[in-house]
Amino acid sequence: MRHKPTADRHRPAVNKRTLVQLASLVFANSYVLSILKFCPAPVLNCHACPLAVMACPIGSLQHFIGQRRFPFALVGFFTVIGALVGRMTCGWACPFGFLQDILFKIKLGRKKLKVRIEHSLGKVARYPVFIGLVIVGAFATGEPLFCKLCPAGGLEAGLPLVATDSSIRAMIGTLFIVKMAIVLLFVVTAILIKRPFCRFVCPLGTIYSPFNKVSYVRLEVDKELCNECGACRAACPMSIDPYLDANSSDCVRCLECTACRAIKVKYGT
Fold first, then answer.
1. How far apart are CA 190 and CA 83, in angstroms?
2. What are phi and psi of 69, to 5 degrees?
3. How far is it, in rounded angstroms, from Cα 252 to Cα 24?
4. How many Å apart are CA 134 and CA 222, to the nearest integer?
5. How far apart are the C-alpha atoms of 118 and 44, rounded to whole Å?
6. What predicted TM-score, i.e. pTM, was given to this entire model?
7. Which residues contact 251 (CB under 8 A, 6 or more apart)?
8. How far apart are the C-alpha atoms of 53 and 37, rounded to whole Å?
9. Phi and psi based region of residue 255 (left: phi greater than 0; alpha: psi -120 to 50; beta: remaining)
10. How far apart are CA 85 and CA 219, in angstroms?
11. How many whole angstroms separate alpha carbon 158 and alpha carbon 153?
12. CA–CA separation, 76 vs 36, rounded Å?
């Protein structure tokens, strides 16, 4: 006989993850520590942002690809993070993921769109972006093609630089207009859909995704306690079913689903 799992229904309005996300946002854009700008960040944060502390890992990857150089250190960096925590940095530290979480909380007097991630849909959407724009695009053009269109860069760097530098405002052209249209698209969709950029576009999430099933930090479902009530799916910012695949490549390890005692964090083998 299955026991009914219990979840903490009295969680604080600002939980631990939100505080960590906020701290990560402040640190990643604290300016005074910009001596670290030659180091890649473990999250998507635009290098061109006037306050950015570290380099964008995807921008760094495109830089090496554009120069026809294999990024040994960067691949090692991705491998270490992925092997330790999988996509956990996406759920706990990424500034653009944090922004999407905030945008989805905006109420417009109408129901949110419930877009279900079916098996492999995230891969079908994300991998063409990663292979086409990040790898092939940078190799063919020698330019950081993804960065030129990235909505995170548009918000963190494009808008602030245009607002504060008249010489940059004078250079506004078609590319900037396209970039702002992409920013607007993601802002609107993030209000209606949980984390659309993370689910269908993010190349950094694509790199970390395969590590979810083998990383040191994983999730485990107690089948005896789970009654498949769907509470974990309702709490999930990626709209996946943790009880079906606790270590899905789409999971950002936010641990919101662990409010149910049927789902636990597992360390190591």
1. 29
2. -120, 135
3. 16
4. 39
5. 25
6. 0.90
7. 86, 87, 212, 219, 236, 238, 240, 242
8. 5
9. left
10. 11
11. 6
12. 18
Q: Hey, what are 190's tokens? A: 């993030």
Look at residues 26, 183, 193, 192 and name the one whose alpha carbon lies nearest to residue 93: 26
- Bridge partners, 40 (sequence order): 55
The region of weakest confidence among 3-7, 49-53, 248-252 is 3-7
Triad 184, 185, 187: Cα angle to 5°: 60
> Which residues in 185-206 are b (16+ Cβ under 10 Å) and which e?
ebeebbbbbbbbbbbbbbbbbb
Between CA 205 and CA 214 the distance in angstroms is 15
Q: Return the structure tokens found at 234.
A: 């309702």
Q: What is the 3-state secondary structure (H, E, C) of the chain?
A: CCCCCCECCCCCCCCHHHHHHHHHHHHHCCCCCHHHCCCECCCCCCCCCCCCCCECHHHHHHHHHHCCCCCHHHHHHHHHHHHHHCCHHHHHCCHHHHHHHHHHCCCCCCCCCCCCCCCCHHHHHHHHHHHHHHHHHHHHHCCCHHHHHCHHHHHHHHHHHHHHCHHHHCCCCHHHHHHHHHHHHHHHHHHHCCCHHHHHCCHHHHHHHHHHHCCCEEEEECCCCCCCCCHHHHHCCCCCCCCCCCCCCCCCCCCHHHHECCEEEEECC
pLDDT tens by residue, 86-104: 999 999 999 999 999 999 9
